[in-house]
Every structure is written in C-alpha cells, then in structure tokens.
Amino acid sequence: xxxxxxxxxxxxxxxxxxxxxxxxxxxxxxxxxxxxxxxxxxxxxxxxxxxxxxxxxxxxxxxxxxxxxxxxxxxxxxxxxxxxxxxxxxxxxxxxxxxxxxxxxxxxxxxxxxxxxxxxxxxxxxxxxxxxxxxxxxxxxxxxxxxxxxxxxxxxxxxxxxxxxxxxxxxxxxxxxxxxxxxx
Length: 184
Description:
Elements: E1 2-3, E2 47-54, H1 59-74, H2 80-101, E3 107-114, E4 118-125, H3 145-155, E5 159-164, E6 170-177
Antiparallel strand pairs: 1-2, 2-3, 3-4, 4-6, 5-6
Helix pairs in contact: 1-2, 2-3
C-alpha cells in the first residue's frame, strides 16, 4: 500500500506584535480593531491519512492492518470496540471495492480522518455504480457488507453514506464518534 499521509500544518496563533488577546490603545480617532483569538492547536492524533492499493484480495488485510497500525501509532483514544468496528468497516468496504469495482477501478483509496471527537473512514474507487444496502437474503452467502457497515456505524452513534466523486467514481464513508453516545 502506498501511504499518502498528510497532517494539518501548524495553525496560526495570531498576528505578530502584541500577544493575542491584548490590545494597545489606538491612536486618536481610530476605531480599535478586534484582536485575533488564538486558534486551538490540533490534538497530537488529529489528521488525515490516505492509502492507495490495488483492487485485489490481498488489499483487504493490508488495509485493515494499515488502519489498525495508524490508529495505534497516532495514539487515537479509541476504545477496543471502536477499533474493532472500524477494522470490520474497512474490511467490508475494501472487499466491496475489490469484488464489485475492480474491473473499472484497478486502484482504490482508503482515507482515515481523525478529529478531536470522531474518526471518519472512507474507501474510494473509480466505478460509477452507487451501491445500496439491500435486505439480507438468508439463502445467500455474502451480500451483507453494507448492511453490516450501516449497523456498526448506527450502534456507535455515527453516520455513513455513499457519495459520487467529481471524477465519476464513488466514496463510501463512515464517521464514528471516539466516545460512545452515553459518555459525551
């Protein structure tokens, strides 16, 4: 997998000169200008990381391991249940891209975006078909991946969706809170 990770750059802390939040007396006849407020610094684990992989079966465990290692390396404060849910989601979404989009999309992308209170996991491919979570056919094996993603996301208090990309493909994403709904 190719890591195209990126982190947000440093955020400005205010203008040069007087420290943020202090004001010097303006010259006579000038209206005092509001002083810039310091921007909150990102938490050490916040950022956006993107991995690309070939749309082949071997990419499923590679994507799962890459997400697991990333969450651990960045020190994301996620419970074991949340991590297991995220790993199952990435496995299902990459599997879907490999099985259903590989013909038109030989490369897929996995993106992990971590904010102060949430984790957003997405898988993008170049195939234009927008899947829907169908009802489970108990006589078939397989075909339940998006249902599973939807349920894991819902139980965690998150949201998921499928969107078209500007290049004609699609991105399927799930955003889950870092803290369970009862602990917020």
